[in-house]
Amino acid sequence: MAVRAVGLDIGTTHVRAAEVDIAGGGSARGTVGSLLKYAELPLPSGAVGDGEIHEVATVASVLKRLWSKGRFSTKQVISGVGSQRVVVREMDLPSLPMAQLRQSLPFQVGEMLPMAADEALLDFFPTAEIDGDNGKMLRGILVAASKTTVASQVLAIESAGLHPVMVDLNAFALLRAQSVSDWGNQTVAFMDIGARTTNVIVAADGVPRFVRTLPAGGQDATDAVTSALKVSTQDAERMKKEIGVGFAVPEQLKLGADALMTTTKAFVESVRNTFVFYSQNNPSGPIQHVVLTGGGAHMPGLGQYLASAMRLPVSFGDGLARVKVNKRQRSTILDGRESLVAICVGLTMGKVGI
Predict the structure, then answer these.
(1) Contact, 189 vs 275, CB < 8 A?
(2) Would you call 185 exposed, middle or buried from its count of C-beta atoms within 10 A (0-12, 13-18, 19+)?
(3) C-alpha to C-alpha distance for 264 and 245, rounded to whole angstroms
(4) Which residues contact 100 (CB under 8 A, 6 or more apart)?
(5) At what angle do helices 254-281 and 302-310 cross, to 10 degrees?
(6) pLDDT band for position 353 (cuts 50, 70, 90)
(7) How far is 36 from 326, CA to CA, in rounded Å?
(8) Which of 5, 170, 225, 266 could be stapled to 351 by a disulfide with Cβ–Cβ 3.0 to 4.6 Å?
(9) Cα–Cα distance for residue pair 261/243, rounded to 1 Å
(10) What is the pLDDT of residues 280-309, one digit of tens each?
(11) Is pLDDT of 26 > 70?
(12) Is 285 exposed, middle or buried (0-12, 13-18, 19+ CB in 10 A)?
């Protein structure tokens, strides 16, 4: 039986929502259903920052307009979180029934959290069962989200007259949207470069192994150009695309190019450190490919620069890889946005456990 869901991605600069009809509950890989509706709207500067909602009333107002624009068939939504206040760690826990395991999380993981256990929403996603020194263990990913982070998002959604039925991790949604057979036998790092945050998830044979949220994104590059050339943010955004990374530029843009390169180098270094950390803890399964999505991924030259620095193949991802889209909707609404919709599309698939 088909399941219909709406995924809501509240980013720093835009809100995006996708309604997907998942046929027969979906499948592990490949096409899972049809994209019925999609809409996006810009957010005022400052309403959201670093993955956190700062102005609840402003975001709620934009969400109301988004639902009017998109004409979605339901007000029930699945939203995503991804910020520095969401802790994600791979760990091993005793093999218990999931309900019992989740109840025990505050006692088992409290000491490793940067916040008090009673200030966090905890969940655990098992990826494998292994033999431990004292019996069977579940290896998986612990997610600990600050209650205040989730509460502000839920409040904004409810203030818009919508009903949050599930709050998921953006990184999991990113993987689900692109979990296709092309990556089935590889270890792949999926990176969604937003305005102020970059979600990274490494999957081995389609199974999530590592998640990080980096506090950097495309807006940092825009800010660097703004400061260097003393121009408006709007002009800097245009110039950033004109300058790119690693290209020759006219003399009047050289200061902007230097600032852009400095910011890009810092960003790539944080990515390199993230990959090195993963490799040190997973020596038998090094990253083989990098897949980029998000608005920040489209800066000219960034993909090539990242590939050279990481010595890995880098390609653009497709957030529509697992859904069918009719030609009219793709050409009028989604053309050129394939790498921007991965999170909101992937969120819809979490409802059926894909």
Answers:
(1) yes
(2) exposed
(3) 8
(4) none
(5) 40
(6) low
(7) 9
(8) 5
(9) 10
(10) 988 878 999 999 999 999 999 999 999 999
(11) no
(12) middle
Which residues neighbour 79 within 8 Å (Cβ) at sequence distance 6 or greater?
Answer: 7, 8, 9, 10, 153, 154, 157, 164, 166, 167, 168, 347
Q: Are 116 and 240 in contact (CB under 8 A)?
A: no
Where residue 37 falls among pLDDT bands split at 50, 70, 90? very high
Query: H or E stretch including 122?
Result: strand 120-132
Q: Which amino acid is at 177?
A: A
The class (CATH top level) of 182-317 is alpha beta
Supply the DSSP string of 27-90, one letter for each residue.
-SSS--EEEEEEEEEE--TTSEETTEES-HHHHHHHHHHHHHHHT-S-SEEEEEE-STTEEEEE
Over residues 178-201, the pLDDT tens digits come to 987 777 689 999 999 999 999 999
The letter for the amino acid at 168 is D
CA distance 231 to 246: 21
Domains 86-145 and 182-317 fall in the same CATH topology:
no
The pLDDT, as a whole number, for residue 352 is 59
pLDDT at 132: 83
So what's the pLDDT on residue 328?
A: 67
Alpha carbon distance 176, 57 (integer Å):
31
What does the DSSP assignment read for 172-189? HHHHHHH--GGGTTSEEE
Is the pLDDT score of 354 beyond 70?
no
| Higher pLDDT among residues 210 and 84, named by residue | 210
> In terms of DSSP bridges, do strands 135-146 and 120-132 run parallel, antiparallel, or are they unpaired?
antiparallel
Helices of type H across the chain: 56-70, 98-109, 147-159, 170-178, 218-229, 233-243, 254-281, 302-310, 327-329, 342-349
Over residues 44-62, the mean pLDDT reads 93
Please state, in angstroms and rounded to a whole number, the distance separating the CA atoms of residues 237 and 223. 9
* Residue 119 Cα to chain centre, angstroms: 23
Give the residue extent of every domain in the chain: 86-145, 182-317
In sequence order, the β-bridge partners of residue 94 are: 137
pLDDT at 251 over 90: yes
Choose the CATH number for 86-145 among 3.40.50.10240, 3.30.1490.300, 3.40.50.300, 3.40.190.170.
Answer: 3.30.1490.300
